[in-house]
């Protein structure tokens, strides 16, 4: 897809991968709207990137409607929806006092919200000449990660849904992309300690993602995610044991 003069909505654009996507997309001449819950961080990101900021929680139906109504009012269309916002929770399922809340929150933010926002955005995407949706998934979609009891499942769901939605929406002119990063050097991965993974720099990751969009590469396995997928096919038990050794501090 072409990446100039597009209207782009990036969820979670205030930090990490979303911030870097926003920075590079604005630099290419696109108009980017970012959302997140932390007003101060979002305003700072908007100032540093030139994006438009909107405080919104992606799990709220009202906030989703409000965001899309604002994009409609200001721009009349949406060319690219980037479902990037996410959380990553490491905890002991049996002993953590907050387990019930964590299960619901992680599924709501990582799995339900990208799908409901995509569904609500369809009328606005259909007003674009070249509409697209990008899901930020993860290489962890291919292996269950014991230290984060729900996170890898949410990314497996996104991997399946990216494929099903691509199939359903392509005949209507909407291209569905999925980028599956390896471990990336952002706040999310700060607590993650493992000798098996090298943290990728957000700027390098985003250059690869934008290259994939330009080439119309709908499924992007990035960095060590390629190895994870390959290992999940030939040595799944070995791969699981490697992930079981991951430490969080
Ligand atoms: N870092 C990695 O190693 C890695 C690897 C593979 C995939 N990913 C995926 O990449 C995406 C971005 O992660 P990151 O590493 O950039 O993490 P990050 O730096 O923690 O950024 C996550 C962003 O999501 C926003 N967010 C979280 N919950 C939200 C909600 N309910 N509503 C609106 N915004 C919300 C946060 O803003 P607020 O807190 O202000 O709302 C924050 O700006 C995630 O989907 C993650 O699963 C990350």
Question: Mind explaining what this structure looks like?
Answer:
Strands 3-2-1-4-5-6-8 form a seven-stranded parallel β-sheet, sandwiched between helices. Strands 7-9 form a two-stranded antiparallel sheet. The longest helix has 27 residues, at 99-125. Strand 4, helix 4 and strand 5 form a beta-alpha-beta unit. The protein has one domain (7-248): NAD(P)-binding Rossmann-like Domain (Rossmann fold). The chain contains eight helices and nine strands. By secondary structure, the protein is an alpha/beta fold. The mean pLDDT is 96. It has helices spanning 16-27, 39-49, 61-75, 99-125, 151-169, 202-214, 225-234, 236-244; strands at residues 7-11, 31-36, 52-55, 80-83, 132-136, 175-180, 192-193, 219-221, 247-248. NADP nicotinamide-adenine-dinucleotide phosphate binds at residues 11-12, 14-18, 35-38, 41, 57-59, 84-88, 109, 136, 138, 181, 183-184, 186-189.
Question: Could you estimate the helical fraction of the residues in percent?
Answer: 40-55%
Radius of gyration: 17 Å
Quaternary status of these chains?
A: single chain
How do the helices and strands follow one another from N- to C-terminus? Answer: EHEHEHEHEHEEHEHHE
CATH level 3 topology:
Rossmann fold
Number of strands: 9
Counting helices, strands and paired strands, the structural category is: alpha/beta
Shape: globular
What's the average pLDDT?
A: 96
Q: Let me know the CATH homologous superfamily.
A: NAD(P)-binding Rossmann-like Domain
- Give the strand content: 5-15%
- The CATH class name reads Alpha Beta
**N→C terminal distance:** 40 Å
Secondary structure tally, helices: 8
CATH architecture: 3-Layer(aba) Sandwich
Taken together, the total number of domains comes to: 1
**What small-molecule ligands were found?**
NADP nicotinamide-adenine-dinucleotide phosphate
- Cross-sheet strand order for the largest sheet: 3-2-1-4-5-6-8
